[in-house]
From TrEMBL:
A Pfam family annotated for this UniProt entry: DUF4430
One annotated Gene Ontology cellular component of this protein: extracellular space
GO biological process: cobalamin transport
Lineage of the species this protein comes from: Eukaryota, Metazoa, Chordata, Craniata, Vertebrata
Recorded GO MF terms: cobalamin binding
Record carries keyword Ribosomal protein: no
InterPro entries linked: Cobalamin_Transport (IPR051588), Transcobalamin-like_C (IPR027954)
Residues in the signal sequence: 1-17
Protein name, per record: Gastric intrinsic factor Intrinsic factor
Keyword Signal among record annotations: yes
Domain Transcobalamin-like C-terminal residues, every copy: 55-129
Keywords per UniProt: Signal
Length: 131
């Protein structure tokens, strides 16, 4: 897409530039395997923003939240650690991405942190678990 086409798309009525305000979400860090206290972080996203952006926003504004990820050439960002706790293939542990929707249902998205687009008032659950 040319720069002019992109500019025109942003200026058209009803596009992302004028659509919606901030989308509030919560990120819940759950680590029952190690008996850690449930932690909840609140943030917002721009309309149609990806989860990775929200995680970075929390990290940049809250010293008590850290995470690392790696880029997989074929599948995108892969969450490695949260708050200093990393998954371990020898111990069969990893960070599972779950979503509690505004109607209370818990689902496992079919995409990761680089593609998931949260909806307003969702609880994004980063769950340390075993496979």
């Amino acid at each position: 897409m040319s720069a002019l086409s992109t500019l025109m798309l942003l200026l058209l009525p009803g596009t992302l530039s004028e659509c919606c305000g901030p989308v509030p979400i919560a990120v819940v860090v759950e680590n029952r395997l190690q008996g850690k206290t449930l932690l909840t972080y609140h943030t917002y996203m721009p309309y149609r923003g990806i989860l990775l952006g929200a995680l970075k926003r929390i990290r940049d504004s809250n010293a008590n939240f850290t995470f690392t990820y790696t880029e997989n050439l074929n599948y995108g960002p892969y969450l490695e650690s949260v708050n200093g706790v990393a998954g371990n293939t020898a111990k069969h542990t990893y960070w599972e991405l779950l979503v509690k929707t505004s109607d209370g249902k818990i689902m496992r998205p079919d995409v990761g942190i680089g593609c998931y687009i949260p909806s307003a008032n969702e609880n994004i659950i980063l769950n340390f678990t075993m496979y």
